[in-house]
Amino acid sequence: MTPEPGTGQQGFPTADPRKIEQIFADTEHLARLGAWEWEFPSGKVYWSAGIFYVFGLTRETFDGTFATLLALAHPEDRAKVLHSKEQALLHGTPFEIEYRIIRPDGGLRYLMCRGGVFQDGSTECRRIVGVSQDITERKALEEQLRSQFEQLKELDRLKSIFVSTVSHEIRTPLTSIKGYSEFLEEGLGGPLSPEQDQFVRHIQEGTLRLERLVNDLVDFARLDAGTFKLKPERVEIGAKIRQVCGSFRPQLDESGQTLRLELPPEPLLVWADAQRIEQVVANLVGNAIKFTPEGGVIQVSLSADDGEARCEVRDSGQGIAEEDLPKLFHRFAQLESGVRKGGMGLGLSISKAIVEAHGGTIGVLSQEGSGSTFWFTLPLEGQ
Predict the structure, then answer these.
(1) What are 60-107's pLDDT values in tens digits?
(2) Nearest CA among 313, 311, 299 for reference residue 258
(3) How many helices (H) and strands (E) does the chain have?
């Protein structure tokens, strides 16, 4: 079948060569690149229209030689350009380099040059074919991002110094307040009236809360500085959970909340830093109490499954929206409800670091209106 006039062998319209050339020119302009070919041993150079744009040349000022393009290279980068060409010819391998040029108008530009060596059949004629692309805008953006990153690193460093300093400065007077409140409670300053005794208890509660915040700041500073260390030992995790839950009894009685504890009859042994595991359990139970309404129920359970001990702390609070769940374990991240109830948003992130340092995992299951279950796992001894 003979194709229709103006169509190719498959019946598709043939393109006007001038139209194709215009498409290539427009595409090169959009991509800020130009294509070229350098022939050996003749030394002939061929180039596309984009080369004029990339190097800031005109048809009148460009003689079509490699020497002219090399002369535009930044003096500090010319050796790199020549070396890449020599290595390509020597080994016949593709190359990719970034270098600077100084255009005829004095403008400094950054180029990305990619090329490869081709040989025509059995002849000695070889060609280096490649593209040169103007990446000045990209380099400027990279430099801006690098500068911002360095600024953030400096801010992070100053933040760590601030946290460490503040923690130390607060801990000293806090120890005095705690000590003197205990003196008053013991009657060393004379007998207290019922009202005064209640005041002292409020001071002690506030002191304990502030002490936990300071400890969180200290742990954060240690984690940030990479000096956070564990002191592992054999721990019966069920006994630790029972001990931590018992310490919340006065708080539970005051709020009228019920804490249900479900522990397995057999001991579960883990190799862990006992103090740090207590810290994790205390943080999860404290959060559950904080977000459970008066008269509500908190359930703490422990089980063994597939070589791991799994502790779950379930509250009967308002639950957490699905879009807020990913924020929970980030440093200083607090949901609106958490901000209203106090804290700095460090407890969960520190707990995550502690659990993962033990080779365990931590997570949360929650749905708005149905409460939340925070859980963590630890490898059982010998696993």
Answers:
(1) 888 888 888 889 999 999 999 999 888 888 888 899 999 999 999 999
(2) 299
(3) 11, 12
Over its C-alpha atoms, the chain yields an Rg (Å, rounded) of 36
pLDDT digits 0-9 by tens, 277-308? 999 999 999 989 988 998 899 999 999 988 99
> What is d(CA 361, CA 309) in angstroms, rounded to the nearest whole number?
11
Provide the 8-state DSSP code for 326: G
Instruction: Of 205, 8, 37, give the one whose Cα is nearest residue 127.
Output: 37
Cα separation, 208 vs 216, in Å, equals: 12
pTM greater than the 0.70 cutoff: no
pLDDT of 343 reads 53
Give, in order, the Cα–Cα distances in Å from 359 to each of 124, 275, 278, 301.
63, 16, 16, 20
Written as six digits, the tokens of 173 are 């007077």
Q: What backbone torsions phi and psi does residue 375 show, to the nearest 5 degrees?
A: -140, 155
Distance CA 370, CA 203 (A): 35
Which residue stretches of the chain are H helix? 17-31, 50-55, 66-72, 78-91, 136-185, 194-225, 237-247, 249-255, 274-291, 336-341, 347-357
Bridge-based pairing state of the strands 297-305 and 258-262? parallel
